[in-house]
Amino acid sequence: MSEITEAKCMKSPIRKHKVFVRWKPEYNLGIPLIDEQHRGFVAMLNSLYYGIQNGHVKNMIDPIINMIDEYSSIHFKMEEELIERCFFPGAKAHSELHKQLRNKLVDIKRKTSFEKEPYRLMELLKKWWTHHICVEDLQFRNYLLESSDW
Ligand SMILES: [Fe+2]
Ligand SMILES: [Fe+2]
Q1: Which of 40, 52, 57, 127 gives the lowest tally of CB atoms within 10 Å of its CB?
Q2: Exposed, middle or buried, 70 (CB in 10 Å: 0-12/13-18/19+)?
Q3: In terms of Cα–Cα distance, which of 130, 123, 125 is closest to 106?
Q4: Where are the domains of the chain?
Q5: pLDDT tens, residue by residue, 87-118
Q6: What kind and span of H or E run contains 49?
Q7: For residues 5 and 118, is the Cβ–Cβ distance under 8 A?
Q8: Lowest mean pLDDT: which of 1-5, 112-116, 122-126, 141-145?
């Protein structure tokens, strides 16, 4: 293993790394399980961004997109169970939104030329995700907070 010198650290790509999505207080719904999973998505997006900045486009994009796909399926299922249990009147419509979100992700995967336009991909994913948290999930927030069933 090579020795880490100060000179090497100064040249390290880590220094160039910027966080793509910084978690904001308005992303918190106040429901720990959901907030934790939402943060998980943000961590995946930031990992992908880090990889792109440091030249790992080919190796990282497909596995992380597949992970986002898989993780969203798990998250949406859990969220749908919770909102049904607390009798959120928009539960069915919200499930439909989840279906649309997953279709959109499939579309992003299909249409975006990841390797040529990795930052375009990042912007699409960021928009896809923050809109979900800040607009769509916000609708059931109060129902869940008032219910003790989570
Ligand atoms: Fe949702
Ligand atoms: Fe959610």
Answers
A1: 127
A2: exposed
A3: 125
A4: 30-146
A5: 999 999 999 999 998 998 888 777 767 777 88
A6: helix 32-53
A7: no
A8: 1-5
**Å from CA of 89 to ligand 1 middle:** 14
Q: Given a cut of 90, is residue 43 above it in pLDDT?
A: yes
Question: What's the topology of domain 30-146?
Answer: Four Helix Bundle (Hemerythrin (Met), subunit A) (1.20.120)
Q: Using the mean position of ligand 1's atoms as its centre, give its distance from the Cα of residue 79 in Å.
A: 6
Amino acid at 113: S
State how far the Cα of 60 lies from the Cα of 45, in Å rounded to an integer.
11
Taking the whole predicted model, whether its pTM rises above 0.85 is answered as no
Neighbours of ion ligand 1 (CB under 5 A): 79, 137
How many angstroms separate the Cα of 94 from the Cα of each of 15, 24, 60, 87, 138? 41, 23, 31, 12, 11
**Token pair 């992970």 in the structure block, residue:** 67
- Kindly give the distance from the C-alpha atom of residue 139 to the centroid of ligand 1, in angstroms, as a whole number: 9
